[in-house]
Amino acid sequence: MTKRVRRRPRKHKENDSSPQMQSTMDGKLITFPSSKHQYTGLKYLVESFTLCSAERDVSKKGKGRRPDPRYRKARPERVQQELERTTGRKASNSDLSMMGSYFKKYVELVNLVLERVYSHTERVDFLGEELNSYKGKGYVLLKKEGYLSYKDNEELNAQCFERMYRNILEQVARIVQSNWLRRQLMQSALAVVSEDRDVLIRLLKNKYVPPTMIKEVRARCESTKDNGTGYYYTLSVLKQLRRKLDEYILIQRGEPLGFRGSQRRRISKYLKDKRESVKVIASVQSLLQEFATQGYPFSVPKMLSHTADFSASTENSPGQGYWYSLDKERENEVLFFLKLPEPLGGTEKESSPYRTNTLALRFLDWLPRAAKKDRKKAELAEQDGKHLRARKLRVRARKFEDMHQQFMNTIELHHATYQHARLKSRKEKDTERMRELQERITCLRKARTCGPPRLLLRDNRVTLQIPFLPPTREMIDEELGPRTYHRRAGADRGVRVPIVLSVRNGEGEFVDELISFDTLVSKRDFLRYQTRGLTSKVRRMKNNWERKHSERYHPGHLLKKDRHLSALWRKIRRLDREIARQVASQTVWFCEEHWVKTLYFENLKNYTPPQGWGDLSWRLSSNLWSKVLDTVKYMRQSLGHRYGGVWTVSPAWTSQKCHICGEKGVRVESAESTEERKGGEYFHCASCGSTIHADVNAARNIIDVQMKKPSAVAGQTA
Fold first, then answer.
1. Are residues 451 and 506 in the same domain?
2. Would you call 67 exposed, middle or buried from its count of C-beta atoms within 10 A (0-12, 13-18, 19+)?
3. What is each CA distance from 560 to 82, 94, 462, 539, 555, in whole angstroms?
4. How many structural domains is the chain composed of?
5. Considering the domain boundaries, does residue 268 fall inside one?
6. What pTM was computed for the model?
């Protein structure tokens, strides 16, 4: 007998103090709907905090970064202890080992539950369909399955506590829903490539998956029409299918597989030969027919990443597996206690509610210090007449202050709930104290609080990600004052500069801005160039060592180079975030200065540079367009714009037509030149005689792409 479950959440009442809900299975925390959140479309803000060992002194403004010279004459044991406390790794080896064991156990249990789910083949499709349309938390659906019940599984009871099992089920629900969606898209992809021989040839022959094919497959899949997802899922599914077909072709011909680039070149070579093409397509069509009758051979999905998500923790009590406690001796430092499952033995901490099953770490709450610093900078900017910068700093300071208050409310709510539960369990009850705590709990549940955190373990670094509610419209209006947005802006994502912005002012003229961070970009390119040689060298050394000493650990000099390579990639990722943040910040505040309501970006998905443009592909990969676009949308949403007010439009002909007369022009080397040159920095129109920077011309064209009235502007869509 199948239970009927609610597929739509109950209507939220104004006086409801229920905790947060999960509205999608995409791994993102989504709070209760409200008019402000529905208007902006922003569901949460996430800030990261680096976890350190509980005994370590957290570095503040450079203090404690260098060892004291007096330790040179001290005993080695004392020097080592002091260095671990003040410098070096943020988390000690013992804490990292314990954290690694915790993540290993968490991943092991997630994969164990996944195996149980996929062993019941008759229920997998039903669960995937239910999870895809369910609007609540996924673990609620999964725990209704009898074979996944916590009480009926003695093996799980011995390895984890009930709240940890909730988080495991929530992680399993996301993986099951994602895998089910991939299976549905694969069925649509098989149908598309089987029906049309030309489509199959294009998939195998082209270097990139055609965007029209992605749209056609996505349109055929009913599961991706209503939830707005599926583009990148469809792209990955088509790549997966193409790789399977490539390997099948090479195996049938008795050739070694080799690396991926070699496979693609050989397949393209066979398809260009008419005789070979007939044989290849015939063998592929037979395999597609087998997939259509027997199904694509999917494997049981597994969790590989070392992350632990507490999003299924719905009650503010220590049973949820994590606990915050303010350090009374150190300012703005917070102790984070993690409850360990039974096989792992922790230590007993004084302020921990978990007794001996505790792993204690600490982190610095940098939010109040950052807010205070921004307030001072805003005052200095106001004195210098930089009013836009002052507004920007005040908004950021208000956001940090609100986040800090949310975090303090959450900690107080945790402790008040815990104290109330302990008083309630006593025989002699203190009714007056219980009443005070209950009133405070009710008040805190109505206040703004942050959501359950997420733990990540990367390169011997433990990171705590905490989601916060976004600032309300009243908070933003208080800092920025009354605002009326009525203009449109175009953004051309150029090669020489990350973004070129253009907007019409009130007098019909254009205001342009070229946003460039050459120093950061050149430093990032230099680091990427270093990783090229080091990556191949490390890979070659590992292969040689494993071939000669397969049963021995890697030597120290090899591990040192591997750590060096990891450090380089950490720097590159850090520069990626910094470049995207700075470019997006200038873009957003340019729009605020000129009252821009809608910002148009060009859509460059699957864009292939034309031949003869030199290293354009490498420069495009260094431009971080997707990261910049997401950051711009995120920042504009936090300022109260509905879904960021960001649109992507077709870039067709916007770089080749004049924004004044609409006629086709040519690229030239300089502002004085009229001779055509491919990839030139300037644009020249022979019809009206105008010469302008090519990216500025494209940005001005992008403004009018979505105009419904007839226009000479290229790329127009009705």
1. no
2. middle
3. 24, 21, 21, 13, 9
4. 2
5. no
6. 0.81
